[in-house]
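Z., the sequence and structure:
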Amino acid sequence: MLRFGTDGVRGVAHREITPKAVQYFARAAARALRCQGVVVGHDPRESSPELARAVAEGFRAEGVVVDFVGMAPTPAVAFLAQHRGIAAAVITASHNPYTDNGLKFFRPGGTKLNDAEEADIQSIYERFMASDEAFIEPVGGYGTVTLETYVEHLCHSGASVNRNLRLVVDCANGAMSTAARHVFSQLGLDARFFNNEPNGTNINVDCGAAHPEHLASLAKANACDVAIAFDGDGDRLIAATSNGDIVDGDHLIALAALDLKSRGLLVGDAVVVTVMSNIGFHRAMSDAGISVHTTAVGDRSVLLELERTGAVLGGEQSGHIIRRDLATTGDGLLAAVELLALLGRVGSTFSEVASSAMTSFPQVLVNVRVDADARARVEACSDVVRAVEAELGDHGRVLVRASGTEPLVRVMVEARDDETARRLAKRIADSVGATEG
């Protein structure tokens, strides 16, 4: 039975993520969130249109009015929900392969669900599954909506971008393939687009934010000033400099934090990041007098902490960058526009500002695929983890966790040098099981 993970529900399309399952989830969300209206969108996976229609039918069966937007980035759907004061649902599996799919919800106003809301939806969904209730004829209204207001919003945010910059844009053959072209065109930017022809099966394939090495190659081959890459549903951003150096979420958040603080806009002089953020990020923020709140992995955890603290900036090393004063969720395109506006203000090259923001400790990530319960495997390797932590002392750190989206144990080791980080990460991974990069 499907259950909420790190970010919505996710599984193999047509085997776990079925029209019936997502329809039941939509009906459960309609009841738990007391929806009057909902925006429904999807990414370009071949399974997504059918699943999105099932979601729409589920909401309509509960009397909810559906605004169907079709293929759209997740943050655009959340923005439309905020703009209209209604809920949202998106069919997407983000950075996963096209054979997977999933469902994300936003409460009325476009914000992510809290734990209690997820639990309510899960409980109602399970009752539906147990009763196997027959399909109810939709009674709610149905209409369509475009991304025009979302594009206008981003163009307004990007009014001060440096229009002399030459861009390389990798859309991951995903949901940003259309929206990004519209925004950068209206801003008058010189942008060359790659991987922006989704065909249902090429989403995230050797491209986008999940494959920054390809972005680095594009940056060096195309004489650009800035290269940027989105993930499949458009809520993440990774960048690269003209010489191919990767600028990950930690660096982008550090840049934004330093810029906002210099302009008196960093509320509470604080940022929110997850346990995955590099030691170098924490040291750079400490040197700048910026406090760091740390959460569990997942942009939902970051968003909940932003709400709790009132901070306006947060995100993840993987590229989720959240400006709570400008959006209700992570938005790769908004983050890109804000980066270009920052470069317009400082007058320095991207390479210069990126390298000055922070210095990363070497970090090694190893994914260990497991057949047994991932959390149990994490517990089983605790003695090895403690030994590695003792060896690192204050000059590194270790994080071992069960993935919230895949049957993996994720091992992360930071150390002063790459060789040490790799050696210790392999030691831990070997204690978990056969490794997979």
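The domain at 249-357 is CATH 3.40.120.10 (Alpha-D-Glucose-1,6-Bisphosphate; Chain A, domain 3). DSSP finds 15 helices and 19 strands in the chain.

Let me know what you think.
H.
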